[in-house]
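Hi R.,

As promised, here are both runs. First protein below:
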Amino acid sequence: MSIYKKLAEIQAEIKGLGQDKQGNGYKYVTGNKVINAIKPLMIEKGLLLKPEVLDIENQRMDYQVSLVKENGQWCGKPKSEILTKVKMKFTWIDVETGEKDENLFAANGQNDWEKGLGSALTYAERYFLLKYFHIATDEDDIDNPERKKKEMEQLRKKVSSKFMELEVERRTKMLEYFKVGDLSEMSLEQLEDADGMLNKIHEKK
């Protein structure tokens, strides 16, 4: 199996991740949640992700925070931090074949004086994985088991509608191909494969 086949299977496995933390007025998916979802699949398929920092740029940022009113005027407390900009390369490596997939990425981080780099690296890893696998994060319950069950039932109805349009012989062969007696016995992966097969069949008509 090629490295791209393995990566495609990971992408197919993770439909989305719900936002699990809130900060600075917005919700987001934490790095821990992303890693916990993807790492077991990486181990299963024998893939490593090698991060490399290609360039670092630090810039001092001075600004005002904690606005308060003094003598009729709004005043702010001065604060200084370091804005760290990093250019990186993330390389997927197939440990069985040595096949690689290299990807350039960039990120920023600003967190006091000594933590900017760590924030930038954490941000880069999280968003590289989210964007590489096109993982949706804009629904709170996107990885909720009940939502997945609902999606599966919707897909089953869609497949069933197309399936019943086939001749009896073709329906029998398809069930034999998936080694099931009925569509209700199909897994989500099998339903997705069947949907693709049925689309191709109907396109030829």
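And here is the second one, sequence first, then its structure tokens:
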Amino acid sequence: MKAPALLESVLHGAWRRKGLFSTLMLPLSWVVRAAVARKRLRYEKHPERIYHCPLPVAVVGNLYVGGTGKTPVTIALAQALRDRGWHPGIISRGYGADVGERARSGRGTLDPARYGDEPALIAQLTQAPVAVHPNRALAVKRLRRDYPEVDVIIADDGLQHLALGRDLEIAVQDGRGIGNGRVLPAGPLREPASRLKYVDFLITNLSAGQSGPAAVDSPARQLTMSLVPAKAVHLATGLALDWASWLREYGDGRVSAVAAIGQPQRFFSMLRAGGLDLAHAVALPDHHAYGTSPFSALPAHPILVTAKDAVKCMRFNDDRLWSVHVSPVFSDPEWIDLANDMLRMIARHKKAVAEQAPRD
């Protein structure tokens, strides 16, 4: 395991309990909690600082630092809303990209260096327009200017970005739940766990055979999600095989896997549950830049990477590389219908308010 990935693993291990490290970090955690509270209070006292989009806005985010499975939920929501007649647009911070002062928008195949790996993946898989900027209001405005057909906004991440008004909140956690329940750096949470009382949906992303965390005290509609391999795409040729076909063709040989996501072991566990006996499993830090190929030391047999990593690995033209595309399986599939109904109601309300507003 690479040093940054090892350090991250050690930290997450420490955050599972209220041990010595966590206790020593408590004073700093109190400072973070106070800063979070002040920030929220500032927006409550000055609501005019919040940008409210005329379109319904759904935010997909988390409390736990690192990867919990937000992006698959964002993709699933965008695809489901499009199937129900919407024209969704997605905004993101564009983590890891050199965005610049102005928001940037695009659709289809996007350069991850300019948009970020997750926005590039979302654009590729949903074919929905995407806009990126740390200031989410600027991203929304750019998206609406460049793609006027958009009628619903999905924010990938941004639960803590209070400057953007939102109408629907979806929190995603994984089997770690809220960890030791403490805020950074004494624990893994960006803000107190009580924040989950105010979200609309709480989705717990579980690996195969993994039991869920302790129940959360929240009126949110709560459900679980598991990711399963749906297909594998050969990066050099674009050949796509459904997972069963890929297993029949390549699954009996030696296969390696490489992942640079928040929880790489979750990817490896999914592949093993999907029928593979991995010869090598290489974990890299989340959002790894892939400045040079990390595959040269691996044997000459198929190498599976996540779809998020694949958008940055195309340029290597390595014939061994296949990207694995996943499908989420929800314990409560009707949650998307409920979200759709809520967004429809919100859209009607916003339209009515706009029509009644005085005109100059």
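A quick note on the second one: The longest helix spans residues 335-356. Let me know what you think.

Best,
J.
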